[in-house]
Amino acid sequence: MQSLFYRINTDRSEYPVALENTYAGGDASACWLMGGGPSFDEHAASVIAETPAPRMAINLAGAGLLRPTFWTSYDPSVRFHKSVYLDPGVMKFVHKRRALDLVPESSFKVCDCPNLLFFERERQRQFTDFVAPHHTGIVDWSDSMVQAIDILYRLGFRTIYLVGCEMQISPSSVQQHRAREVGVVHEPGELLKDFLKRCNEKGLTTGELEEVEREAQYHFAETKPLESAANADAHYFRVSQYLRLCRRAMSLAGLRLISVTPHSRLNDYFPVMSIDEAAAEIKQTTGDPALETTAGLYQQLTDRRGTFRSPMRDFRPPVKTVAEDHVHKKLKPPENHEFLIEEEGFEVAAHDRNEVRDRVRELREHPIEINEAG
């Protein structure tokens, strides 16, 4: 199968890096997805940092609070931090059109950066197969959040906790108070564009509201003019509806989106947890590093087997694997020997079959259990 991710050199040569399903396990692997919303604060960052789960940052999310494990962006490279691009500890995913961009405040190209992978984009993707293993690129709906979800799915994650993902920008309480003076009441969940339009119709201009005290749009030090914020809010609304329409596709793919963001537009459509409940769920599945002890581990003095109600045994598949078939072909004996294929899948010479049958019978009577010494 062709690899989805690859490196690019400065001469534009490419080589694949196989990462698909690298992070999948026996349980549904979990990852935090960090947005830039104002609800993402020091408490949330400290809780996330203590969980045994990686975290992906979108754009500037996490800046000043928490270093990401993975990072992705949709916008031009100049909008982001040099320390993210050049940090080998952060695995970065960007579209190939960014390969020859300059890393901010450096002479390096983006393709020079360590631990940075490129991908092709897919614009023509339907809601019915939003996430699926047959895609040869990452979804391009002009949004970094859906891009991040698709990347995490292809890496093998099946539970994604959304933090700092309000998916809306509301007028500040002072702006709402000013609007009420002219008879405009902001409705919960109302698009910012619609609120500004109603204010303008009452004679309160966007410029006047711009001068009124504003609340933080992000958890980091950045803001947008009110008109730009209204456009961003409309984009967030559209993407939240995209994700609502993709719920069946995600369900069929075994992907869970869980909102841990208070007052998110997504909370009407997806399961909601507190940050502490999400952390507890991760620790229940993976283990709690804070409770694990090192005492006695090097001396092997403790019995660390799990408690099972019945024994565990490893069996061969009921059909030969490709590897077994290959070995049989390589070790195929001369054609003048008579061979017998036993129930267990062994090829046995006729004159040895009684002895082999006895050995197989002994193995059945004395199964090997996992964790058994020797």
Q: Describe the main β-sheet briefly.
A: 7 strands, parallel
Principal-axis shape: globular
Our Rg estimate from Cα atoms comes to 28 Å
The helix tally amounts to 11
The CATH architecture of the largest domain is Alpha-Beta Complex
**CATH topology type of the largest domain:** sialyltransferase cstii, chain A
DSSP summary, beta strand count? 13
Task: Please sum up the structure shown.
The protein is α/β, with parallel strands linked by helices and 374 residues long.
Search tags:
13 strands; globular; 7-stranded parallel beta sheet; two-stranded antiparallel ribbon; alpha/beta; sialyltransferase cstii, chain A; 374 residues; 3 domains; 11 helices
Question: Can you describe what's shown?
Answer:
The chain has 374 residues and is α/β, with parallel strands linked by helices. It folds into three domains: 5-168 and 233-291, sialyltransferase cstii, chain A (Alpha-Beta Complex), CATH 3.90.1480; 173-216, no CATH class; 295-374, no CATH class. It has helices spanning 42-49, 82-85, 144-155, 173-180, 192-201, 206-211, 226-245, 247-252, 275-286, 322-330, 353-365, and strands at 5-8, 14-17, 30-34, 55-58, 70-72, 91-95, 116-119, 121-122, 138-139, 159-163, 256-259, 339-341, 347-349. It is globular.
